[in-house]
Amino acid sequence: MTQEREMRAASGWVMLVLEIAVIAAMGWMIRGFALTQIATTPEVLALIVLALVAVLVGAGLIIVEPNGSKVLLLFGSYQGTVKRSGFQWVNPLTTKRAVSLRARTLNGEKLKVNDLAGNPVEIAAIVVWRVRDTFRASFEVDNYTQYVSMQSEVAVRHLASSYPYDAEEDTISLRRNVDEISASLQAELQERLDRAGVEVLEARLSHLAYAPEIASAMLRRQQAAAIIAARQRIVEGAVGMVEMALDRLEQYQKLTLDEERKAAMVSNLLVVLCSEHAVQPVLNTGTLYQ
Fold it and tell me: Model's pTM, two decimal places?
């Protein structure tokens, strides 16, 4: 047996009626003994049998909650798993283990790991999981909840060391590609937790940051990269606007400029468009002759 086997149990209400009837019969016999003060050997044996039946019937009654289960063992041998919720009756000689099938959330602790580029980062993940195979969860691993916690930490560490914290747009990084990183984490976790019969419903990063010792330096680096990117975008736009202005002037023949005046105009327009501060206009009133 390497996977679970679902088992259907008998109705507990029918067996409860039988239990009540046996107890009532025992009470009637004990009352008769008390009145007659005489107990024959067959009557005593019948009372013992009824008591044994009452104990066995009562020991086999179980209650299975919604999204719950009972794993049944008979002298160490796996018999099956009862998943149907309700009041039921099973073999009274079996050992019953309760295994919850509800979804659970693992809020991982912050881990300090080096990313692919060797930068120390702090990372944490949230994992939503549930037991899918009760046999594997009960017998393939020692403690499946602890197993999920440990394997989740290993998977997060491996994920952080497989990707850079930040990179260019054409490279997958922890900060930019959230969906791809989450999908990769979920796939790796599912592969690791299959042994324990656990299904990973969702896995996402809950915390991601540079380690405190390099956070300020990396912040300045990000600011510098953002300034450079913004400057590039501004210059590209300014050059396009200057080119469009010159084309329009030549197209409608509003103004004819020689190469020197055209270069001066391009220089002035670039200064106006690329400057970070407000530009003060200068009016040319002509040349003063004496």
Answer: 0.71
